[in-house]
């Protein structure tokens, strides 16, 4: 941590991803699902940015858009200063060496008809490490690095447990030495006892490989364990972004307060639990003004009309709320 | 050398070849279905017969009018001969001989030899035409699902058109124009028979396409070809095997039906052709039509039993 480099690895500028909603024979455009609606943040080298939010708030879409698995509607994604939204096929292939993804469901993320060794080795073949012996050696190394036995490379996914499969998924993402890994809820499908193992493994390899993570989760205790900085997303927008310590000690946004109050604690501080009413509104037709105002416990008149901007309240602490402007 | 062959087989035969334990698992499940095992045994027997049988039988094209219409061994027929001098009918009993265990047809050709050579033709027709149809159906179906959007629309509407097209009429027309040839018949059956396969595989590939392992492959930078041939097709391989097994009998029957109505290749002795030649003499020499009929019946049944068994074995949800 001490020698943390200050290089910006990833810079996201006003990123938007809209899914058009069409109807009828002529595919009339009747609106957009604004899954990601104007998001900006940076990730430095070796940084771990935790991204939290309820399901359906656009976390996963954001992750996939950064990987260009989804085409962004507008905005910029700068990787090492280069805009990757305009990359062609060849450039995109190069980008794949730099940014990788770990999935939520370890069952679905491995091809059931491929040995895990082949799954891990596929990345090496794609990126032209085609010598069979060299590849086998690298696969064996990777498997040992994630805590599996190299001899298990010839086994099929159904012969592994959920935690082991997630380790294989991690090994596959590591195969081509990426600099940034997007971890899309990597532990939420696992048992709690296995969660800790996988999280610690991810911490270890982060140190070892000098990785940066965009760590997507809906579990704040997982975020607290992993992240250096935390961003809260609500309906396609960032509500609050702060360093971990600041985030957990001095949450500003009412939504963050509500989320934090929902975390079960062994030492109840006598804090009242803030109950959020209703569900996340539809991203097809988000509420006017502040998107959170229909569920907010500290709503102001202005919240109904005007959308708050994300502003820096103190050093590195951004919040989008009218209470602090 | 063997390593190279193994590599090629792995790429073509894909996961089923390389995954011995999976094969064993499926084999165990298939074995539990006795009818499927029976079907498989019959098919194996038929293939063996078609491969090595012709070396042991008489020439199926050898015409011998001295010994025509001989019944099979164990059966006898009466033949009435009109004697011009005595003006009387003399009835002689003819019984089958071991020289022609299944009898002879109206031209004195050995039925056993014809049936065995017919097995070879019917199996060829069944396997080759199904091979063409399944290959086309797999490529069109999986491609359609993978590409989505406009390409999917165009390919599927094309499939609809092909489905509604009366293929029997096309066959009749082509046979009429180019003359009956087995290769042509096989080709037409293959080229028109892929539509159902394409539909089934498209729906299967559609659900696979959004699975995380496909996304992972794309995120690793895999090309479209690698995703389709490396991930999608291996994952529908078991379905392909089932569809192929179940569509072989249909193809064999289609060829037989064509031959039966007189549109078959007359230079071959396919079961349909033999059936056709036997229908005129059903009252005097029933065995000429009945023997290929029984073989067709058993073959179709065997493939259907095996196909059903494989479908149940490959379906993880079925408890067998």
Write the layout of secondary structure elements.
The complex is a heterodimer of chains A (325) and B (320).
Chain A: E1 8-23, E2 28-44, E3 48-52, H1 59-66, E4 74-79, E5 82-83, H2 89-98, E6 99-102, H3 116-126, H4 132-145, H5 162-174, E7 180-184, H6 192-209, E8 212-217, H7 220-226, E9 229-234, E10 237-243, H8 244-249, H9 254-261, E11 311-314, E12 317-319
Helix pairs in contact in A: 3-4, 3-5, 4-5, 5-6
Chain B: H1 2-18, H2 20-31, H3 34-52, E1 76-83, E2 88-95, H4 111-147, H5 149-164, H6 167-178, H7 182-192, H8 195-209, H9 212-219, H10 224-260, H11 271-278, H12 287-314
Antiparallel strand pairs in B: 1-2
Helix pairs in contact in B: 1-10, 2-12, 3-4, 3-12, 4-5, 4-7, 4-8, 4-10, 4-12, 5-8, 6-7, 8-10, 9-10, 10-11, 10-12, 11-12
Short description:
With about 325 residues, chain A is an alpha/beta fold. In chain A, about 30% of the residues lie in helices and about 25% in strands.
Give structural notes:
- The complex is a heterodimer of chains A (325) and B (320).
- By secondary structure, chain A is α/β, with parallel strands linked by helices.
- Chain A has a domain at 228-325.
- Chain A is 29% helix and 25% strand.
- Chain A has helices at 59-66, 89-98, 116-126, 132-145, 162-174, 192-209, 220-226, 244-249, 254-261, and strands at 8-23, 28-44, 48-52, 74-79, 82-83, 99-102, 180-184, 212-217, 229-234, 237-243, 311-314, 317-319.
- In chain A, strands 6-7-8-3-9-10-12-11 form an eight-stranded mixed beta sheet, with helices on both faces.
- In chain A, helix 3 (116-126) crosses helix 4 (132-145), helix 3 (116-126) packs parallel to helix 5 and helix 5 packs parallel to helix 6.
- The longest helix of chain A is centred in the middle third of the chain and has 18 residues, at 192-209.
- The radius of gyration of chain A is 21 Å and the shape is globular.
- Chain A starts with 7 loop residues before the first strand and ends in a 6-residue tail after the last strand.
- Residues 1-5 of chain A have low confidence and may be disordered.
- Chain B has two domains: 20-69 and 104-314, MetI-like (MetI-like fold, Orthogonal Bundle), CATH 1.10.3720.10; 74-101, no CATH class.
- Chain B is 69% helix and 5% strand.
- Chain B has twelve helices and two strands; from the N terminus they run αααββααααααααα.
- With 320 residues, chain B is mainly alpha-helical.
- The longest helix of chain B is centred in the middle third of the chain and has 37 residues, at 111-147.
- Chain B has a two-stranded antiparallel ribbon.
- In chain B, a hairpin with a 4-residue loop joins strand 1 and strand 2.
- Chain B is elongated, with a radius of gyration of 24 Å.
């Amino acid at each position: 941590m001490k020698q943390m480099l200050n290089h910006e690895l990833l810079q996201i500028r006003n990123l938007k991803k809209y899914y058009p909603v069409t109807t009828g024979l002529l595919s009339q455009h009747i609106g957009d699902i604004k899954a990601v609606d104007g998001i900006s943040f940076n990730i430095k080298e070796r940084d771990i940015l935790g991204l939290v939010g309820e399901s359906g708030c656009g976390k996963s879409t954001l992750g996939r858009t950064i990987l260009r698995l989804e085409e962004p509607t507008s905005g910029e994604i700068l990787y090492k200063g280069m805009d990757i939204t305009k990359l062609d096929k060849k450039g995109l292939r190069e980008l794949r060496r730099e940014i990788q993804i770990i999935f939520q469901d370890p069952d679905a993320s491995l091809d059931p008809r491929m040995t895990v060794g082949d799954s891990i080795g596929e990345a090496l073949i794609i990126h032209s490490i085609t010598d069979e012996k060299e590849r086998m050696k690298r696969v064996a190394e990777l498997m040992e690095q994630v805590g599996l036995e190299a001899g298990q490379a010839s086994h099929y996914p159904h012969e592994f447990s959920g935690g082991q499969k997630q380790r294989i998924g991690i090994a596959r993402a590591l195969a081509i030495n990426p600099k940034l890994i997007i971890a899309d809820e990597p532990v939420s499908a696992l048992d709690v006892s296995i969660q800790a193992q996988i999280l610690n493994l991810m911490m270890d390899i982060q140190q070892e490989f000098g990785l940066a993570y965009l760590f997507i989760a809906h579990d704040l205790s997982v975020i607290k364990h992993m992240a250096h900085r935390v961003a809260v997303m609500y309906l396609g927008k960032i509500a609050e972004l702060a360093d971990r310590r600041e985030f957990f000690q001095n949450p500003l946004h009412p939504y963050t307060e509500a989320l934090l109050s929902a975390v079960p604690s062994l030492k109840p501080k006598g804090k009242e639990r803030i109950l959020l009413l209703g569900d996340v509104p539809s991203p097809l037709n988000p509420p006017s003004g502040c998107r959170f105002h229909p569920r907010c416990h500290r709503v102001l008149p202005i919240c109904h009309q005007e959308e708050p901007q994300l502003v820096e309240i103190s050093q590195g602490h951004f919040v989008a709320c009218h209470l602090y402007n | 050398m063997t390593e190279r062959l193994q590599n090629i087989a792995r790429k073509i035969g894909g996961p089923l070849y390389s995954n011995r334990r999976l094969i064993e698992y499926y084999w165990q499940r298939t074995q539990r279905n006795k009818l499927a095992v029976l079907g498989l045994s019959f098919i194996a027997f038929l293939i063996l017969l078609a491969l090595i049988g012709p070396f042991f039988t008489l020439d199926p094209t050898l015409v011998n009018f001295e010994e025509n219409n001989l019944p099979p061994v164990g059966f006898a027929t009466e033949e009435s001969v009109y004697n011009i001098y005595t003006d009387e009918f003399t009835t002689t009993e003819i019984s089958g001989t071991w020289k022609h265990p299944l009898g002879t047809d109206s031209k004195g050709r050995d039925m056993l030899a014809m049936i065995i050579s017919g097995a070879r033709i019917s199996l060829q027709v069944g396997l080759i035409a199904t091979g063409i149809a399944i290959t086309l159906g797999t490529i069109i179906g999986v491609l359609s699902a993978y590409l989505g959007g406009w390409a999917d629309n165009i390919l599927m509407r094309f499939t609809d058109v092909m489905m509604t097209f009366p293929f029997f009429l096309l066959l009749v027309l082509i046979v009429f124009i180019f003359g009956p040839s087995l290769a042509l018949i096989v080709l037409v059956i293959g080229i028109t028979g892929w539509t159902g396969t394409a539909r089934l595989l498209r729906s299967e590939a559609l659900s696979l396409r959004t699975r995380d392992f496909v996304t992972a492959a794309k995120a690793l930078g895999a090309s479209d070809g690698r995703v389709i041939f490396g991930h999608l097709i291996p994952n529908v391989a078991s379905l392909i095997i089932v569809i192929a097994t179940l569509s072989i009998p249909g193809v064999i029957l289609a060829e037989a039906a064509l031959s039966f109505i007189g549109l078959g290749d007359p230079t071959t002795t396919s079961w349909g052709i033999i059936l056709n030649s036997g229908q005129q003499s059903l009252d005097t020499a029933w065995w000429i039509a009945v023997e290929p009929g029984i073989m067709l019946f058993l073959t179709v049944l065997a493939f259907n039993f095996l196909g059903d068994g494989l479908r149940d074995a490959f379906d993880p949800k079925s408890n067998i």
